[in-house]
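Practice problem 4.
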């Protein structure tokens, strides 16, 4: 027995797509900026000061930029998939978006739990010989996050385009 479309379900799908697309654009362009300006190198090498404490939400920390929207990335994409499952024309794109979003979220959890505390939030910056291997790993995982966010954003945009054309 297949699900049928309803105005409420369509509205929910559209709203979740709005949230997912906006938060993924925020995530992608923030991640791209971090890569281009080598933000991890700057933050990892900085000395703690009264103005710039080495904390997740201290001045200069990218955590302040991501905190408001990052927690909704994967839930919004997965929610859009669940709400829009009945629409076969967008289902594949929503599946790609949700899967990519979950992969990116998993990579982010790894970075936040395993790398960031050592690199950025220790009392003092690590010595360069300790810092460089962690930074290499950070950039490798960041490449996965950047790719996942790009794929998710593209798939969400494609699903939205298909939904708008079908109206």
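Answer key:
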């Amino acid at each position: 027995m297949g699900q049928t479309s309803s105005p409420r379900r369509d509205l929910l799908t559209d709203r979740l797509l709005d949230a997912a697309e906006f938060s993924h654009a925020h995530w992608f362009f923030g991640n791209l900026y971090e890569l281009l300006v080598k933000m991890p190198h700057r933050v990892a090498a900085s000395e703690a000061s009264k103005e710039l404490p080495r904390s997740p939400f201290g001045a200069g920390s990218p955590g302040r930029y991501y905190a408001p929207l990052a927690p909704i990335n994967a839930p919004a994409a997965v929610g859009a998939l669940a709400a829009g499952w009945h629409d076969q024309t967008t289902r594949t794109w929503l599946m790609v978006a949700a899967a990519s979003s979950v992969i990116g979220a998993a990579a982010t959890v790894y970075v936040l739990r395993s790398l960031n505390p050592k690199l950025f939030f220790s009392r003092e910056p690590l010595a360069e010989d300790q810092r460089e291997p962690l930074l290499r790993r950070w950039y490798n995982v960041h490449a996965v996050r950047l790719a996942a966010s790009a794929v998710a954003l593209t798939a969400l945009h494609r699903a939205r385009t298909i939904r708008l054309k079908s109206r």
